[in-house]
Amino acid sequence: MRRFGLIGRPLGHSASAAYFAAKFEREGIADCTYTLYELPEIGALERLLAETPDLCGFNVTIPYKREVMALLDDLSHDARLVGAVNCVRRTADSRLVGHNTDVIGLRAAFDCLLGGEQPSHALVLGTGGASQAVQYVLAERGIPFDLVSRDAAKGNYTYDNLPCEAVEQSRLIVNASPVGTYPAVDAAPRIPYGYLTPGHYLLDLVYNPPLTRFLDLGRQRGARILNGEVMFRRQAEASWRIWNE
């Protein structure tokens, strides 16, 4: 049996196990399983690997996308440049190689949301591992951006000092934070939504629930919106290809 899985904390919102179970059934893959491994801290990964020698690869989610890098033997080009890992391949000789398939999912999500449009400026909410992938893909596209963080040392703005003009002028806004994820479905990043317009594009990396409060508030203002489903599916398939190289 070949085992795969997801490490992170908490994992109650994750659709990864259901996604891969459906994939294995649909494609007649009988020798694989995918399990959610909720780790209390990143140091618990060593024990998980020791106890699960047939774990061939795993995804990484909040809050370990950066912390896991110190435990890996090598990094792909994208993972090294992004500074975050969401996919790890365990080689035949038990080396751990980190990859970032979030960037693949984000490229697809931006294509879907923006079409051929090129916003002149973006606002990225959050400064964690997922945000780093967003920043990488925005830079690829030549879209300048500002960061909004709870920590003044990590962003251009905090949620408490975010100018209304920054929201009004940033026609692409990406929620790269976990705010609004199930079960906290009534939460939304604290930005002045009254300054959104039909000319805005909102991308939420959260996919559970499908319509977050962040996206719903944007929709009410006429903005074009997209949740994290496209990104989730594309990064999952990219992870599968990496594990089966």
Automatic annotation (TrEMBL):
Pathway: Metabolic intermediate biosynthesis; chorismate biosynthesis; chorismate from D-erythrose 4-phosphate and phosphoenolpyruvate: step 4/7
Keyword presence, Kinase: no
Molecular function as annotated in GO: NADP binding; shikimate 3-dehydrogenase (NADP+) activity
GO BP, sorted A to Z: aromatic amino acid family biosynthetic process; chorismate biosynthetic process; shikimate metabolic process
Keywords on record: Amino-acid biosynthesis, Aromatic amino acid biosynthesis, Oxidoreductase
CDD domains: NAD_bind_Shikimate_DH (cd01065)
Oxidoreductase listed as a keyword: yes
Cellular component terms (Gene Ontology): cytosol
InterPro entries in UniProt: Aminoacid_DH-like_N_sf, NAD(P)-bd_dom_sf, Shikimate_DH-bd_N, Shikimate_DH_fam
Residue intervals of the Shikimate dehydrogenase substrate binding N-terminal domain: 6-88
PANTHER family with a match to the protein in the record: BIFUNCTIONAL 3-DEHYDROQUINATE DEHYDRATASE_SHIKIMATE DEHYDROGENASE, CHLOROPLASTIC, SHIKIMATE DEHYDROGENASE
UniProt-recorded name of the protein: Shikimate dehydrogenase
Species whose genome carries this gene: Alistipes onderdonkii
